[in-house]
Amino acid sequence: MNVLIVFDKKNAKQVKLEEFDDDREAIEAYNEAEREYEHFDSDSDYEVVLLGADSAGVLQFTHPGYFLGFGSDSTVAQVMGETLGLWIRENNVHTVPFGNRWANRRAGAAAPYEKFETKQAAVVAGRQQAEADRAEHIIHNRDGSIGERKSYMGDPLPLGSQAESALASDIA
Fold this sequence. Notes:
Strand order of the largest sheet: 6-5-4-7-8
Radius of gyration: 21 Å
Shape: elongated
Strand content: 25-35%
Oligomer: single chain
Number of strands: 8
Structural class: alpha+beta
């Protein structure tokens, strides 16, 4: 999958978005977009990028800034729309691949706040942070897809609570 984006840096939104399954078509479209926007000087507010990955999820996590403001008719936007709910809470912790290493980052943050040599070490630290913050811990696979989610936000009716007992007696 290839995605061509013309990004308006000044207004932090994409101006143009095209998806391609064929690499040659993507490169031709990229070259055409470069020619179209070449009349802007080097200090221009536009950036032409061609991104490639196995899935929209990978692009979302490797280049999140480019995907703000997608139109609802985009396949990538639909995939991201389904997953953006995971990024809504700023204190949610994401354990993500980071080159050959692993990292933890806050929801929506471009950069990680801590890095680890192994996924296991990142998961342990991410879980501890999510528990401390009463947040969700989202653990990603190497390809960027979500492998596991755990919530530490607290159950509104914890097992054995008086509220749960009252609710159970009302139902019975």
